Amino acid sequence: MFLLTFLFAISWQFAQFVLLLQSLALYGLAVLQLVDKDKVFATNFTYCKEIFFKKNMLFSFLLQTCKLLTSFLMAMVMVWHFQYYQPMVINSLVCSFIPVAIVLLQTQDTTMQGSPGGVRAIGVNLAKTALKSIGSLLAACSLNAIIKVCT
């Protein structure tokens, strides 16, 4: 995945926006816990084998999502290096969002939120998700501003 992302990002100057949308979609799926284990892990046999022996499948998905986001970030850093340290690459929002998303996903509670409670439980879960999303976007924008000042 790293090599394909690297080739994509180095060949097209606007690839950072596509990677940002893809990172936001992966982060949204991880936060909302809307994932089908067969769709996520069907491409790699070792992960499928791991799933059958693990009790907590959401943790496996979060780990896989963080690995994918890390490969996006490493590809962007390599593109930055190979394009002679062009500031547009390292100052992009995707390079600021991915570290924030990885930290928040690693600290996310991996227990399923399916407790009974009807409409009230749905409202609480939606409010938590909205707060996590707004907080992560604010943290990414703050990190982006710090990176722009430092470069």
Number of domains: 1
The rough form would be described as globular
Largest sheet descriptor: none
In percent, how much strand structure appears in the residues? under 5%
The count of DSSP E runs of length 2 or more, i.e. the number of strands, is 0
Residues in helices, as a percent range: over 70%
Q: Alpha-carbon distance between the termini?
A: 28 Å
List keywords for this structure.
single chain, 151 residues, mainly alpha, 8 helices
Description:
The protein has one domain (2-150). The chain has helices spanning 2-11, 15-32, 37-41, 45-53, 57-82, 87-90, 93-106, 119-150. The longest helix has 32 residues, at 119-150. It has 151 residues and is mostly helical. Mean pLDDT is 79; it is low at 36-49.
Task: Give a quick precis of the structure.
The chain has 151 residues and is an all-alpha fold.
In terms of topology, how is this protein built?
Blueprint: H1 2-11, H2 15-32, H3 37-41, H4 45-53, H5 57-82, H6 87-90, H7 93-106, H8 119-150
